[in-house]
Each structure stands twice: as structure tokens, then as C-alpha cells.
Design goal:
globular; 28 strands; Methylamine Dehydrogenase, Chain H; single chain; 4-stranded antiparallel beta sheet; 477 residues; mainly beta
Length: 477
């Protein structure tokens, strides 16, 4: 009996200790992995620092939880970019070791002992592994609605989460890490499954999986450079790459096989490009001159057509059409004329200019919002007391305009129709531009993105800092 009683007592004691261990809560590190959370919570969110109570006076950055880090960001965008410590500004401000990368001031944690070398490495490794939470989840992995922005001066494409309007990835593009290949234009297959990018300083067209943002394939465009456009047919099977030179060219590409099909040479400074509604004709703006080129998609012939109703082709600088947009019904073309500071409407049925709409200085890209039948135009050099650049909204119902000065040297623009937002990359490449919040891993000053609400043009966000020369934007369809 005694031995039986003793055994029962032992089991009871063990159960009590086991229950005690279960009841003891683990440290709360805000859903960060324990080793990372211990650093962030004890050294970054303690006191009057980056926590929910004090974020407003700490650049808007709340590091108290993993969720807040990625869904709230900071006043300048995203401090942490999963898989990329190189482009995560948080790493710049906690680092005091030159061999571990960029160092920015003020050093964080502010007025405290800097992080040890081991702690900095731990944070960088966590980010390079995707910056997962305690469950191993990586923010942005299952997001469909995204906006893509090319950073022309750093061979990187920034991916925005449409829901938070914050950067969630920095995709390094190009085939040669030793040079800046200058990505210039990005486009999507109509089904949104793939995105394609062309380069000024590389002969390759690159194809990426839009779900994973991983490289799928490269196509060598006949070892030639200066590519500024990739236009894609409605079925997603064929692309047309345009090279902007005085002896310009168009190469058609089988996008399924990623192989060159045909080439047309002898085009005069071809730039803005669009397809007809039935995909049998290319319309290409001659960026120097007063005309556009009408080209069959077999790339056999082209016709030069003036857009000033003169009947004469002028190869000297005059209107200098930069971008082109085809109306929804396919009957009209719209050109941004960067030398005359206007948008011209061209009727394909009458082969004549039907409207001339003055906009701002040096108009560049266009984006159309069907909800209010409005065409938005970026004017890169439109000067004002608040900066350099504007967005002009053209109401195509009555051709009235509204202007909003925003950003600094805005160029390519993109509309998120679902959330009724306009994304505006700002190149910010002149000496008098906006001072960057943080350094760049590439030479030059960081560009940024501003976001406007449509149709009001109220500012949703401004100065979301990216990398060098934020040049062009595209929304995933």
C-alpha cells in the first residue's frame, strides 16, 4: 500500500509541475521570432521609442509587433523589405560596422548603446530569409493586387502591396551585376501571370512570374541596346520591343518560347507605342519630330503620319511626341507632346487632330481612369513654388483640365482602379530635388512615390522612398 501511495504522490507532483510549466507564458516579442524579437522589443520599442504610443513622433514607425511593421510602415515607406536587407532602411540605421553595409545617422537605438555586431547580423539574416513571424509566415507571399515601380538608376523593381500602399519587395533585375543596365519599362501579360522588363543598357528582355516575382526566362534581342518599350498582344503570346535611336527598331518576340520572331529597322526615334484594338497595327510616336508611325504587326511596312494637320513630316525637334494612348473604342490616339507642352487627340477615322489640350511643362506618361473618363498626364518639369512636376487630369467628356503639383520630376504613372488610386513615381534626379531620408546602395539620390486619391486628387501618401530614379509604374491586371 505504501509503495502504491508513494507512486500516486509522485505522479501528482509531476502533473502539478507540468501544469505550472504550461501556465507560464513565454515572453511577448510582438510575433517576431524570439531571437529577433528580443532585440527589437527590448532595444527599439522600449521607453519613448518605436511603439504604438510614440510612433507619431518617431517617423511614424511602430515596431511593437510584426504586423505593425509591415502594415503601417513609416512616414517614408517600408523599413524592412522581405528577402532584401540591402534595401531595408532599418538595417542602415542600426548598423555601425562598415563591412556590414550602409550606415545612416542618427544611429538607432537613439542615445543608447548601439547594437552589437552579432545583433546587426541577426537582423540582416532574418530579413534576407524573408523576415518571417513566429509561424514562419512571410508578408506579401500571397498578395495578388500589386503595383510595380522601376528604379532606373539601380536595376531594381519595387513591388507595392495595393492594400497597404507600401513596398513589400525589391526585385533585382538584369543579367550583369557589375553594371547598371537601366530598366526602363515594365509590362504585364493581360492575364496578370507574368511581367516583362526591358533595359536601355542590356540586350535582354526578361520575363518574371508575377505570383512569385521570380525570373522565368531571358530573350536576347539580337545583342542590341536602347530598349524603351515592351507592348503585348491581347492573348499574351507576342510582344513588341522598341529601341529608341535615330535608326530605331522594333523586334517582335514569341513570349511563350522567349524567342525573336522578326525585326523592323529604320525607324526615327521611336518611343511611345500602342496596339490597335484588334492587334493588327502598331502606333509608334517619333519622339523627335511632328509625327507617329503606323506599322503592321508583321513588321513589314510603316507609314509616317503628322499630328499637326500640316501634311508634312518634320524630322527636326518640334512637337516631339513622347507617349501614346489608344482610346477604349480604338478610334482615337492621344499623344503627350513634350516640346509643345500639350496633349493632342488624333482621330483615326479622319486622320486629323481633333483637340489640342495644353497641360504642364514636359508632359510624359499617361494613364486612363474609366470611372470618370479621365486621362491623367505626368508633367515632369512643370515648375511651381512647391517643387518640380505636376499631374494634369483631362476630362475627355469636355476636355477641361485640373492640375495637381506633386512629387519631384514625376514620370511614368499607374492607376489602381480597384482602390481608385494614382501612383506617381518621382525621378528626383536634379541637384535641387527632395533630400532623401536614407542612403542608396547605388550611386545617386533616391526617388520616391506619391499616391493620389481618384477622382479628387487628394494626397493619400507622399514621399514613399524607393531607390535611384523611380521612373515608371504599372499595375498588375
Amino acid at each position: 500500500m505504501n509503495s502504491k501511495y508513494t507512486l500516486i504522490q509522485i505522479i501528482s507532483v509531476l502533473l502539478i509541475f507540468s501544469q505550472c510549466r504550461k501556465d507560464k507564458a513565454p515572453p511577448d516579442y510582438g510575433n517576431y521570432p524570439t531571437d529577433v524579437g528580443k532585440i527589437i522589443v527590448t532595444k527599439c520599442t522600449n521607453g519613448a521609442c518605436h511603439n504604438s504610443e510614440n510612433a507619431s513622433v518617431c517617423n511614424g514607425l511602430d515596431l511593437s509587433t510584426w504586423e505593425n511593421l509591415f502594415t503601417k510602415g513609416s512616414n517614408n515607406g517600408s523599413p524592412v523589405i522581405p528577402y532584401s536587407s540591402r534595401f531595408s532602411p532599418l538595417c542602415y540605421f542600426i548598423n555601425t560596422y562598415p563591412d556590414l553595409g550602409l550606415m545612416n545617422t542618427p544611429t538607432m537605438p537613439l542615445y543608447q548603446t548601439p547594437l552589437t555586431r552579432e545583433e546587426v547580423i541577426k537582423i540582416k539574416q532574418w530579413i534576407d530569409n524573408g523576415a518571417p513571424n513566429t509561424k514562419g509566415e512571410i508578408y506579401g507571399s500571397n498578395i495578388y493586387d500589386k503595383i510595380y515601380v522601376i528604379n532606373q538608376g539601380c536595376d531594381v523593381v519595387t513591388v507595392f502591396d495595393a492594400k497597404t500602399q507600401l513596398p513589400i519587395r525589391m526585385i533585382e533585375v538584369g543579367s550583369n551585376p557589375d553594371i547598371i543596365e537601366t530598366p526602363h519599362f515594365i509590362n504585364f501579360s493581360p492575364d496578370g501571370k507574368y511581367w516583362y522588363v526591358v533595359f536601355i543598357n542590356s540586350p535582354y528582355l526578361e520575363k518574371y512570374d508575377a505570383a512569385t516575382d521570380k525570373l522565368v526566362a531571358r530573350c536576347n534581342l539580337n545583342y542590341q541596346l536602347d530598349w524603351n518599350r515592351i507592348i503585348i498582344t491581347n492573348d499574351g503570346k507576342k510582344g513588341f520591343c522598341v529601341a529608341w535611336t535615330s535608326n530605331g527598331k522594333i523586334i517582335s518576340v514569341d513570349l511563350e518560347k522567349m524567342q525573336v520572331i522578326n525585326v523592323l529597322y529604320g525607324l526615327y526615334f521611336p518611343h511611345g507605342t500602342a496596339l490597335s484594338k484588334n492587334n493588327d497595327t502598331l502606333y509608334v510616336a517619333a519622339q523627335t519630330g511632328n509625327f507617329f508611325m503606323k506599322i503592321d504587326t508583321a513588321l513589314t511596312t510603316h507609314i509616317d503620319i503628322p499630328i499637326d494637320n500640316s501634311g508634312n513630316i518634320n524630322y527636326g525637334s518640334s512637337l516631339d511626341p513622347h507617349d501614346i494612348w489608344v482610346s477604349s473604342d480604338g478610334s482615337k490616339l492621344y499623344f503627350t507632346c513634350q516640346n509643345s507642352n500639350e496633349v493632342r487627340e488624333f482621330d483615326l477615322n479622319t486622320n486629323s487632330v481633333t483637340h489640342i489640350i495644353p497641360v504642364g511643362t514636359f508632359p510624359q506618361a499617361m494613364a486612363y481612369f474609366p470611372d470618370n473618363n479621365t486621362l491623367y498626364v505626368s508633367c515632369e518639369l512643370d515648375n511651381s513654388v512647391n517643387g518640380l512636376g505636376s499631374i494634369v487630369a483631362i476630362d475627355l467628356n469636355n476636355y477641361t483640365t485640373q492640375k495637381k503639383h506633386i512629387g519631384y520630376q514625376p514620370h511614368g504613372i499607374a492607376i489602381d482602379e480597384k482602390n481608385k488610386l494614382l501612383y506617381i513615381p518621382s525621378r528626383n534626379i536634379t541637384g535641387t530635388g527632395v533630400p532623401p531620408h536614407h542612403s542608396s546602395v547605388c550611386g545617386g539620390k533616391n526617388g520616391f512615390v506619391s499616391i493620389l486619391e481618384l477622382p479628387t486628387l487628394n494626397v493619400r501618401k507622399s514621399k514613399i522612398e524607393l531607390s535611384v530614379d523611380a521612373y515608371f509604374a504599372k499595375t498588375r491586371p
